[in-house]
Fold:
Amino acid sequence: MYALDILQNTTAAKYEKFTFPAFQYVLQNLEIEKSIIAIAASDLDQPLGLVIAEIRQDDQSGEVHSIFVEPTHRSTGIGTALLTRLEAEVVKRGCTKIEMVYTTGKPTTPALERLLQKCNWTSPQTRMLLCKGDAQTIMEAKWMKRYSYLPAGYSIFPWLEITDQERQAIQKQQEVQPWIPKDLIPFQYEKKLEPLNSLGLRYQGQVVGWLINHRLSLDTIRYTCAFVREDLQKMGRVISLFSEAGKRQVQEKIPNVIWTTPIMHKFMVAFIKKHWTPDLNDVDETRGTSKLLK
Structure:
């Protein structure tokens, strides 16, 4: 038999291995992080499972950050019990909805989706493609080489060299006639960007595209924000940015590439599925699901 308990600082340490590194700090500071709910399953003080969620004050909803059951105790009802207890606790704190976003491609994904279905959550909806690959392998792809050449009138430049006048021109044009999706406006991603291969694209003297990247670790660069003006997209100009960024990355012997593509950007999603998939290590998905609570 197992017991379910809301964790406090004094009881949380032994459950740190049951969540992602990013949330281990949260477990160490539960007395401070008042919006966090951590519920543990145990048997005679032996840790068996953990679910962590956060209460969002802006819309009074709950967001599940992680749920984990010790492998030898799976399929025993612990996952269901943890999620059910969490739902009840979220309702006590004034929430009417709970949500979760997770990544596919893991051995536990099928079990998680069965749990969500059993607990009457909505059918998971794909939000993004999550692409991972080796920079050298990607650069050797025939289609990548095809877009490495830029016709006259185009030039690629380090993003750090964008001028104040060019910034103002982008912002003014966006205000007058929006041409950039809100999630792809470059200026919101400039903090701690990777200078090695964060690039801009000019066409006839005007900035028409960019690729803003971030270093996740010594061996991995995340390609965070990629965009080229809509009338130039079908010409593959965004791939030219990827090609130049990849070339600079390979030269510095940084092997790993990772990026996400929101499912709403249909042109890029279609291109990845048609051309990129064979040259990538993994193409997983982030999926979202939710449940209305009484």
